[in-house]
Amino acid sequence: MVKEYTHTKRARRGNAGAQYGYNNGRGKTTPEKQRAERGQFDFDVINGFKLKEVEFKMPPKSEREAMREQFKKEVRPSFLKYVAEHFPDELRAMGISDVGLATMRKGYSVNGYNVHHKLPIHGGGTNDFKNLIIMPIGPHDELHHLVIDPQLKNKSLAQGIKIKLPWSDDMVWKRPAKSREKLNMPVAQLMQKQAGR
Predict the structure, then answer these.
(1) What residues contact 136, with CB distance under 8 A and at least 6 apart?
(2) What is the mean predicted confidence (pLDDT) over 85-98?
(3) Which residues contact 99 (CB under 8 A, 6 or more apart)?
(4) Fewer beta carbons within 10 angstroms: which end of the chain, N or C?
């Protein structure tokens, strides 16, 4: 079982997952949540990330711990400095102020934002910059709690399993142009809406 490897839910007001049929662990399990546990979703895009199938295989514990320690001490500060230097306009568009940019240039995180491993370390992900993206905590947590964690529930990862992973090639999250209720939809429907603008 991988309970200890899934993200801890942060306390928040309201029920952010309710609009997608999730109850954040409260009350009755919904059909949407049951389908998510099987890797079946009513959408192909969530918070600007397209779902793609990947092999999710847990490395040995010592390797995971070493990578997490390296991430905390070396990789995250270097990544923050890099994106602050190379993507200031994108960071401002995401909501980071000039003060926040100055903080990032020193290698420190900005409150309300998270450096996300696109393929998590406990699924075989690396600390390479191409596997990292900075994004707001709310959309980040939805990637884990609505898509990744349900697929890992009660599964053994030692041999590896196929899951649908939210993926973006970007290093800085781009706020979707459409309103929140239109973020999570089948790709074909999203393309139609974009073409009809």
Answers:
(1) 94, 95, 112, 113, 114, 173
(2) 97
(3) none
(4) C
Domain boundaries, the chain: 43-175+185-195
Residue with tokens 């905390």: 72
Cβ–Cβ under 8 Å, residues 119 and 54 = yes
User: What is the distance of C-alpha 52 from the center of its chain?
Assistant: 13
**pLDDT confidence of residue 52:** 95
Checking if the pLDDT of 4 tops 90, the result is no
Burial of residue 150 (number of CB atoms within 10 Å: 0-12, 13-18, 19+): buried
Q: How far apart, in whole angstroms, are the C-alpha atoms of residue 94 and residue 73? A: 25
- Ranges of H-type helices in the chain: 31-37, 61-70, 76-86, 88-94, 98-105, 137-142, 149-152, 187-195
Average pLDDT over residues 100-119: 97
Helix, strand, coil % in the chain, rounded to nearest 5: 45, 15, 40
Average pLDDT, the chain: 83
CB 17 within 8 A of CB 23: yes
pLDDT at 167: 96
C-alpha distance across the termini of the chain, in Å = 46
